[in-house]
């Protein structure tokens, strides 16, 4: 048993603005513990809390200042916990602090750089590395990922669900058994045999979390996430199994409700979060007070789940994340205070050993059998009842395998049962006789062969037939798949009217439906092929997209708009950067793969040469009737040292390739995540844009009842800066499938809608908003038109805006301000040569 108080660490996040100094100081000189002093700025000190202290001092195991990188955090905080988990103890690391203080950055990592990966990916990497090294035990690793939001648990790893909101994820509930053990119903456990598999699960969970988040439920700041590694280990042949759990917890933001200042739904959420953290605080207060018998774990889901971590069977570590800026000073102080209380809690970690009942039964059965046999030998008691048919059959099988066994040491073990021993002798005699007869007989050898091969052939034939049936089935499935693919491609072609991009899509589609395992398997293949296999990483992207169910549903117009949106989005820079890095890593991996192959070939040659040399030496010795010369052969020495050198080179390159593989994997996952995020933002923007256009629509086209169309007057076209040329392009683009099409050309003539003077109107282009591909191209054309005008009018604007959403929003507002501002801007005449949808 290990008695240990919860370890507390502090991590200070780099400030947004530099030169924010003088607010805190760190004193590491004191024995063992470090202390953090938060100094109140003069202007705050007076009115702060209820006393006039000027500084607050808090003790921590260690304090990591702004410049501490992720590796330092891992080595000092997470690695010791991971080590105790490997030894069979439970471990927990939780991050506590206000929103934006770096909890997610610390636990999961930053979304941009590989070097920013946080505790979870680094710990996974470390654990799997250790498991690989230790061959004395058999390890099994499972992963679960739970999100708790508003006192409800959600399984972030459920593969069946395509979550678009939190409610779509399976709800996890708590069950308590009579021994007061907590069980989580509906939380799926996924086996991970490699680091890659575990990492995929982490990213799948994070992506689900991101997708499920809406502006209304900013789940990432208001929910708790618990990533758990379940590790079991067993020594071969032993019935004792060790189980250990490692919880890596990203808590909700600890800010108080008073500061949030929100109402309605958001207030409920803020309260809830506070409620949840409030219960955590209560548990911690109760635990830190001596002689408290009741600990209110059951008040909230989170404290129930983390019951062992808080004052129980676990080695627990807390990281207080601090954003030590002036405006956060009260929150930072309260985070530190919380940590001080946490440090008073003592945990008692024990080795979680368990006897595997299945293995135990087998073991006991064997023991009973042995004892019975011993007893029979000692007492000389004979069993009289006849052996059963099954026993006889079993004995004959044993004899057969005994006879086939080439090992001269092999024994025929039938136990101390005289009936069995006798039967064995009988059977052996029979076999011997049977063998003698055919030898004497005159039956031709061919027939004899046939006879004894008969059962073998029969067996072989049956096997082949089974394989044949299996193959037939496989072929049928493949043919069906191909048919489906073909049909899909044809449908796509049909829909897009032979659009080029669609063609491209249909061409590539046969390669898309690949099983996830396939990709993973290729990742694990041997070193020389790894370099080529990196190309198959893309499957994950499909997996994630499949998860989101977004991309597939995008119509062409929408896809085009998405491309524009992506281009204008700030994250696309990171995406591009990462793409660039990824490219470099790919080529590095490819080159390494080639060098490894080369080294391998060289090693082969050197070995060959050495053997040849050796044979030559021996031959020489024989021919000269002398022994192999005892003096070392210089050529052989050189060859050996070359071989060693080559082997070292091979090993170094192999290690580098392995590291590269992990990095590429991680970057790929980061990019996938960023893509999904971008797509999500695009969807939100798209919906907003569509509803705004609809809201702005003055009147519904009276002819077309099926599809609402917006009509816009001439003056309005000016206001919103849609050029005439653009309008006609928009109109022209719509001709075929839209029921409104025939009207547009007339509308362009200048007819205006009634009531235009009082309400703002849109340009004359009709913009139906039903979400079909035609509609999408309309919106797209509309956006493009506005963009191109804006770029002409104010080329700087695009570069100044940080994100696509904002930028397009700016386009909108600039357009309307131009219109309302009276500076008459004739878009139509100023942009005659600029087509709206220059593609
Ligand atoms: P929280 O999860 O506590 O709300 P985040 O982890 O999301 O906060 O951090 C907020 C922002 O600050 C993120 O953009 C993150 O990348 C950045 N950040 C946090 N901690 C650090 C750090 N130690 N170094 C660099 N950037 C950080
Ligand atoms: Mg966070």
TrEMBL record:
It comes from the Eukaryota. Its main location: cytoplasm. GO terms for cellular component: microtubule. InterPro entries: KIF6/9_C, Kinesin-like_fam, Kinesin_motor_CS, Kinesin_motor_dom, Kinesin_motor_dom_sf, P-loop_NTPase. Signal peptide: none annotated. One of its GO terms (molecular function) is microtubule binding. Residues 502-521, 740-773, 820-839 are annotated as: Disordered. It is found in: Cytoplasm, Cytoskeleton. Residues 749-760 have a biased composition (Low complexity). It holds the Pfam family Kinesin. The keyword Nucleotide-binding applies. ATP binds at residues 97-104. The keyword Flavoprotein does not apply. Residues 830-839 have a biased composition (Polar residues). Keywords: ATP-binding, Cytoplasm, Cytoskeleton, Microtubule, Motor protein, Nucleotide-binding. SUPFAM superfamilies: P-loop containing nucleoside triphosphate hydrolases. One of its GO terms (biological process) is microtubule-based movement. Belongs to the TRAFAC class myosin-kinesin ATPase superfamily. Kinesin family. This is Kinesin-like protein. The lineage of its organism: Eukaryota, Metazoa, Chordata, Craniata, Vertebrata.
